[in-house]
Amino acid sequence: MPGSRTGTATLVPADTRIPFPISDQPLACRTKPALFAIEDVSTADDPRAREKATTEAKQACSGCPVVTECLKWALANPDLTPTGVWAASTKRDRTRLRKQLVARLGADWPGVVAEQERRRRERERTVRVAPPTVRDRAFARLELELVPTRPEPYNPWKQPITPQQAAANRRVLELALTGKAA
Ligand code: SF4
Questions:
Q1: Are 50 and 63 in contact (CB under 8 A)?
Q2: What pLDDT shows up at residue 54?
Q3: What percent of the chain has pLDDT over 90?
Q4: Is there an atom of ligand 1 within 6 Å of 28 CB?
Q5: Which of 31, 66, 73 gets mutated to test ligand 1 (max ligand atoms within 8 A of its CB)?
Q6: What is the mean pLDDT of residues 86-113?
Q7: pLDDT digits over 157-172, tens only?
Q8: Ligand 1 centroid, distance to 87 Cα (angstroms)
Q9: CA of 51 relative to ligand 1 center, distance in Å
Q10: Residues 6+ positions from 145 with CB-CB distance below 8 Å
Q11: Rounded alpha-carbon distances, angstroms, from residue 101 to 52, 104, 106, 110
């Protein structure tokens, strides 16, 4: 069972559209599953014991190499993650996040997210197969220059472009358009 912490079989099927992330690193929730079972922590001796356990589990997740993918998996599989800390989220956090996802993407949000992931992987594959040409890069640069106010965090330059830089960019573009630098 991909996301199981105990390794035991379960009858609850996982949503295969968002698979549990693969990692060659040891995952804290696999090596120390009890750390993440915060609902099992007794508060008889210390009323803040569960709160402390939650903080500890969240810290362990925050250094995990697959935390983002794990969160998507945990949100897409509520029946497999009814308790405990998953990807630094508690049961209450996950319930809130699922409501937000339904409001933003609809009831079948795992399908929407899976499709977005598929397209992203396809784009990355395309870029790997065909790196951008000089012409592509020149167009991308000019496109950025033509946007008068670039919203954060997409503003890569602190200084406005100089006339010399703009002229150099135009020369590159001209070469690219005539096919001499493609
Ligand atoms: S983010 Fe936390 S729950 Fe998810 S795989 Fe990593 S250690 Fe486990």
A1: no
A2: 96
A3: 57
A4: yes
A5: 66
A6: 95
A7: 555 666 777 777 777 7
A8: 5
A9: 18
A10: 161, 166, 169
A11: 29, 5, 7, 9
